[in-house]
Automatic annotation (TrEMBL):
<dbReference type="InterPro" id="IPR013189">
    <property type="entry name" value="Glyco_hydro_32_C"/>
</dbReference>
<feature type="domain" description="LamG-like jellyroll fold">
    <location>
        <begin position="97"/>
        <end position="247"/>
    </location>
</feature>
<keyword id="KW-0732">Signal</keyword>
<keyword id="KW-0378">Hydrolase</keyword>
<dbReference type="Pfam" id="PF00251">
    <property type="entry name" value="Glyco_hydro_32N"/>
</dbReference>
<comment type="similarity">
    <text>Belongs to the glycosyl hydrolase 32 family.</text>
</comment>
<dbReference type="InterPro" id="IPR023296">
    <property type="entry name" value="Glyco_hydro_beta-prop_sf"/>
</dbReference>
<dbReference type="InterPro" id="IPR013148">
    <property type="entry name" value="Glyco_hydro_32_N"/>
</dbReference>
<dbReference type="Pfam" id="PF13385">
    <property type="entry name" value="Laminin_G_3"/>
</dbReference>
<protein>
    <recommendedName>
        <fullName>beta-fructofuranosidase</fullName>
        <ecNumber>3.2.1.26</ecNumber>
    </recommendedName>
</protein>
<dbReference type="InterPro" id="IPR001362">
    <property type="entry name" value="Glyco_hydro_32"/>
</dbReference>
<dbReference type="Pfam" id="PF08244">
    <property type="entry name" value="Glyco_hydro_32C"/>
</dbReference>
<dbReference type="GO" id="GO:0005975">
    <property type="term" value="P:carbohydrate metabolic process"/>
</dbReference>
<keyword id="KW-1015">Disulfide bond</keyword>
<keyword id="KW-0326">Glycosidase</keyword>
<dbReference type="InterPro" id="IPR006558">
    <property type="entry name" value="LamG-like"/>
</dbReference>
<dbReference type="InterPro" id="IPR013320">
    <property type="entry name" value="ConA-like_dom_sf"/>
</dbReference>
């Protein structure tokens, strides 16, 4: 007899009894999850198959795919619950008065705990009427069994032995009229004795749900997200109308472990699965994007030990904003990235229980990297402060594990808007470290608070770094997020010229060029009016930056907003992506110049077209056979007239869908016409001022599925989206009057990022 058959029979024997047969209604269940494909799961007691609900079994924007069956079960296979759409529904279930729930779980992440409700592993509950039962996880790995008799709701908690992430745990709950108990890995953790016999009130008006809460909190929207869902691997789930003793629970635990050890889970088996998006019509391929679910601004870039690191705001439970972690990418060139495990997550305690929001990175006196982040703690007022983390093993080039410093390093000074203090940005000049933290001052507008330090750990507040006139420039708002301060060149005197980038709340990125007055710790702008880099109307947001130590370039990273209008992230399974990294400089007139870093050329594949000095008509004849949605296009146009001219991309054969990028010489504007971009969405025109002063129109366009980035003369950009409904909306065309001259035109196919997960390097 094989070990597997032997210990499976040992487990089953614990549940044998006359009522182990098919009951009507059902009160005994066993799901082994031993499937390798398909959208159904066998319930072993009845032999029936139940549907596994999953967002992509009826995918809208990609090929349909099965739920995520995994090989690394405790016995054979297991089911990976994605945290927002995966669950199993069982009808016609009525629990017996005696009850045992037993299951192996490996959580991937923990929810915030909206409305105080569990992330349900299994439940059939009616909370308002105190009926039914639930077994589930909670904040920071706490877990609980709960049940009701119609008059009282009983809760049994384990707060002291949090479930470990990415590891198997065997959780058991037992109930009888005398008492209830919970067990972790065969050991009793908590119990409750009833003074009078407890009669479980069945919530028969509710379905039995596995992985989803019966009465979940909801994030409202066009397509609401249900919260309080299980996120991770599940294996060997039992429900039995029988009370198991402590000895029987322990024996059941051991029966699953023929070697005496809990099996390990390869990280790729439980990690967010980027491969399920193969064939996605809209998900970018050569832009950095989270493996799945929600992301926002990339931040904290740095270069260390031969690797570039970039982090990002991330919700590992679903494609929506909630309980924010720090995702992590690693790269050799800032273009070809690899996924690393989540770097920072909310933890129990007073430091950062309610979110890890944006920040930056720098190096301490030893030259080792330090992450500065916004620590969210709703138990404190204000609820935002600055904390830091250091690598557990600085010799690991991928810097997979990080350790929190136990105390906050900066808190909100007096005089700033309450609860508006976030997104630290750190740099060093001479022997001093400087830190900007986004905030605002009542009646004056947005600003950044400046701190200084002599050791990168102990910070002293100085003053507001820069105050603009929010009455004169209302788009600057009352609060600034994500301040970034970088050198971009020199004045004629040799003094360093800087750029200050800020993100006014719910507005586009604005910037000033100017000087750093170190004597008074203030920024002095060259011009009063804030400037825009991008005219995409909230497409290019969330700035972060660094000076690349390899090349000396000042580089800015951004988030390209999804702009889903008419589509929904639930059906997409991902939200937002990074823009291309940009290299900043200034021209001889002191104007900002920026363009994608040269390394993006590493993604070039076949050159599809190269021509020079052609008429518009002849250029379009050459373009007639060139199609695609993953392209780089460089075009230089000359025109002496006053009519708009430019480039059409993502054009369907009939022109029903198309997107125009144009220059209007008469109005001196650069813009994008999205009136026909997508039949899925209502679209419009976005544009802004740009004077070419007789220079050619030099346009560089990057298409990446739904992503569109356009850069003109290194002076302005447009970041937008093209959610084309028509699959043949792939054409390219130069437009304008016949006098437009095509000085040059080049088109390349671009290769996708070969996404992989990095491997950890053991500490010496």
């Amino acid at each position: 007899m094989s070990n597997f058959i032997g210990y499976t029979l040992s487990v089953i024997s614990l549940f044998q009894g006359s009522d182990f047969q098919r009951d009507t209604p059902v009160s005994n269940l066993h799901y082994s999850f031993d499937h390798t494909a398909g959208a159904v799961v066998e319930e072993k007691v009845s032999g029936q198959y139940d549907s596994v609900q999953y967002a992509f079994t009826k995918a809208l924007y990609k090929p349909q795919s099965d739920p995520l069956w995994r090989k690394s079960g405790v016995t054979q296979q297991a089911l990976l619950f994605d945290g927002y759409s995966t669950f199993i529904e069982k009808t016609n279930f009525t629990p017996a008065q005696e009850l045992t729930l037993a299951v192996w779980v490996a959580p991937r992440a923990f929810e915030w705990g909206d409305e105080g409700k569990l992330s349900a592993i299994i439940n059939q509950q009616d909370l308002p009427n105190k009926k039914g039962f639930a077994l589930g996880m909670y904040r920071h790995g706490a877990w609980s069994f709960q049940c009701g008799d119609g008059a009282q709701w009983v809760e049994l908690w384990d707060q002291e032995h949090p479930l470990p992430k990415n590891e198997w745990s065997f959780v058991v709950a037992t109930l009888s009229e005398q008492g209830a108990a919970i067990y972790l890995n065969g050991k009793k953790i908590n119990e409750k004795k009833f003074s009078t016999p407890f009669q479980l009130a069945a919530a028969t008006d509710q379905k039995l749900l596995i992985g989803r809460h019966n009465q979940a909190a909801v994030i409202e929207g066009d397509m609401p997200f249900s919260l309080n869902m299980f996120n991770g691997l599940m294996d060997e789930l039992w429900v039995k109308g029988q009370f198991l003793s402590e000895g029987e629970v322990h024996a059941m635990y051991l029966a699953y472990l023929p070697t005496g050890k809990i099996p390990k889970i390869p990280y790729q088996e439980i990690a967010l699965d980027y491969s399920k998006f193969n064939g996605d019509r809209y998900r970018p391929t050569y832009h950095a994007v989270a493996p799945a679910h929600w992301m926002n601004e990339p931040h904290a870039p740095f270069y260390y030990g031969g690797k570039y690191h970039l982090f990002y705001q991330h919700n590992p439970t679903g494609p929506y904003w909630h309980q924010i972690h720090w995702g992590h990418w690693v790269s050799d060139d800032m273009i070809n990235w690899q996924h690393a495990p989540v770097a920072l997550a909310p933890e129990k305690g007073d430091l950062t229980p309610d979110g890890i929001w944006s920040g930056s990175a720098h190096f301490d006196a030893k030259g080792e990297p330090v992450l500065y982040f916004t620590a969210g703690n709703d138990g404190k007022k204000p609820n935002q402060a600055v904390a830091i983390a250091r690598p557990k093993n600085p010799k690991d080039p991928n810097l997979i594990e990080w350790i929190y410093h136990p105390k906050l390093v900066a808190e909100q000074p007096q005089g700033y808007l309450f609860n508006e203090f976030r997104d630290p940005f750190v740099w060093k000049e001479g022997t001093l470290w400087y830190m900007l933290v986004g905030s605002g001052i009542e009646g004056k507008g947005g600003t950044a608070a400046l701190f200084t330090s002599s050791d990168a750990l102990t910070w002293e507040y100085s003053n507001p770094f820069f105050l603009s006139d929010s009455q004169k420039y209302p788009r600057l708002g009352d609060m600034w997020e994500l301040p970034v301060f970088l050198p971009v060149g020199k004045y004629k005197s040799g003094e360093t010229r800087y750029i200050l980038l800020v993100s006014p709340l719910k507005e586009d990125i604005h910037y000033w060029l100017g000087r750093f007055d170190k004597k008074n710790n203030r920024f002095i702008p060259d011009q009063e009016a804030p400037q825009l880099m991008d005219y995409g109307k909230f497409g290019f947001t969330g700035p972060s930056g660094m000076v690349d130590p390899k090349t000396g370039r000042s580089i800015v990273f951004s988030i390209a907003q999804g702009k889903y209008r008419g589509l929904h992230a639930y059906n997409m399974g991902w939200a937002h992506n990074a823009g291309l990294p940009l290299s900043l400089s200034v021209d001889q007139q002191g104007r900002l110049l920026f363009e994608p870093i040269q390394e993006v050329e590493n993604k070039r594949g076949q050159q599809l077209l190269s021509l020079k000095n052609m008429s518009l008509v002849d250029a379009n004849k050459a373009l007639a056979t060139i199609t695609g949605d993953v392209l780089e296009i460089k075009v230089t146009l000359e025109h002496k007239g006053k009519q708009p001219y430019g480039l059409i991309v993502r054009k369907s054969p009939t022109g029903a869908e198309q997107t125009k990028l144009y220059y209007n010489p008469e109005q001196e504007t650069f813009g994008i016409d999205r009136m026909k971009t997508s039949q899925f969405q209502e679209n419009g025109i976005d544009e802004g001022p740009l004077s070419l002063a007789g220079a050619p129109f030099e346009l560089r366009v990057f298409l990446d599925k739904s992503m569109l980035e356009a850069y003109v003369n290194k002076r302005r950009s447009i970041t937008s989206r093209t959610y084309c409904a028509l699959k043949d909306a792939l054409g390219i065309e130069v437009f304008g009057d016949p006098a437009v001259q095509v000085k040059s035109l080049e088109v390349w196919a671009l290769n996708p990022i070969d996404w992989q997960y990095v491997s950890p390097v053991p500490q010496d």
